Structures are given as C-alpha cells and as structure tokens.
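OP here, attaching both records as promised.
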Amino acid sequence: MTEAFRRLDFRVHVHATEEEDRVREALAFLSGVEDPAVEQAEGHHGNPISILIASLDRPSDIRAFWDRVRDHGQMTPLLARLGKRLDARGQLFLRFDKQEAYRGRMKLVRHDDVVSVKGKVAAYPARRERALEVSRAYLEEG
C-alpha cells in the first residue's frame, strides 16, 4: 500500500467549562497519542482555552488511524464528501465529534465542538486534483 499521507495533525479546544482529562481521552482515542502538546489561548470574553495538539507522521500510525476510521463506519461518509474536504494545496480537513470521541466512537460532523484533523496528502504535483486522486485511491484501497 502506497503511503498517501505525509502527516496528520489533530487539534482540540478545551474550554473553561470542560474537564481537560476528558478532552485528552477523546484526543487519545482518535489520534492514538497519549501526551499531546498544549498551547494556551484566550477566548473572546477573556476565558482561558487550552488547545491540545497531536501529530502522526509515522506511516504505521497514520495507517492505524485510517483503520480506526474504517472500523467505526466513517469511511463511506468521508469518501462521499472527499472533494469538499480537500483544499487547493492538497490538505484534507476532517472534524470528529468531541463528545462521541470521549465515548469511544468516531463520528464525522460539521459543527464546531470537534477534534479537527488536517492531513497533508503526499501528491506530486501538489495540486488539489492530484491530491484527490491519491487520497481516494489510498482510502478506497483499505
């Protein structure tokens, strides 16, 4: 299987009203990373926000993530909207429901309470059309 993704980056916001340990569990479930990096930010009204960040760049870790997506029945909805999830530079954007991830389930969503995933498609030339071909072939192959 040819590797189609160079890297997957995961980000999730932890709002002051949330328990950080639970959000960490959701991120670990999706990414497989137990010890994410943490950035501090401030909300519009001065409220503290922690941003948990995890990255996968080893092919085996990236493959394991896509296997989990497939095992949780999310590959079909992902493939159905694949073209809408890719930008002009060949980056794939996904949003997984944060609450569902905490419960041990993967669910692609369009709302804002999410763990976001950005994947860099290994396509040359780095154009959207080529990235779409490469990512579709890889994701359908599994």
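Record two, same layout:
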Amino acid sequence: MSVTVDDDLWSAIGDPIRRRMLDLLLSDGRGTATSLSEQLPVTRQAVAKHLGVLDQAGLVHGTTAGRERLYRVDQMQLARAVGQLMEVGTTWDARLGRIRRIAERIQREAEGAAGAGEESSP
C-alpha cells in the first residue's frame, strides 16, 4: 500500500499550536488572529504566521473583515488530512503487526532451543 503524503499539509498539522488553532476555529466556526491569540499562549504575530502556514496548506481560508482577516477551516482539506492520517495509521499498524509476529517467532524459537538444551542435560 502506497500512501501519498502532502508535505505542506503534514507540516501544517504537525505543529501543536496549529492543531489547537484548528480546534478553536472548528468550535467557534471562525476566528481572527486577535481572537485566537487571546486563547493561545503565543502572540498575535505568531498566530498570524501560523494562520499563514495553515492557509498555504489549504486548511483555512481568510477573508477581509474590516481591518482584520477572518479565518474559517476548509472542511474538504481537513477531511483529506484525516484520510491521509488514517491511511498512514493503517500502514503502520500492518508493519508493527509483522514486526510483532517476527519477534514472537524468534522468542518461541529461543525458548524452544533453551528447553531442548535443558532436556538433554544429565
């Protein structure tokens, strides 16, 4: 299974502040750099930069509202990100399952060899 990864998208959602911003925008429906900075441990300028990253990845879109930009989450792009995360999760679950089976087989073989050595001892 091959997973197509959009680097901008993954970089954008990889940051905990940006994930929190997405949560806030989803719960409030919209927000500005000022309103988000009031709820986050970063400055308004930092929020504006984070919003720029999210906008570049297509996760949010801004419209001018007076002197500020009003941001909303792009539901389609967010759904795409969730889909990619689920694909990667499924791929890694399969890989880890194979590793676990190999480790269990090696352990059984080692226990079997140890047990055979004890049986032949006088």
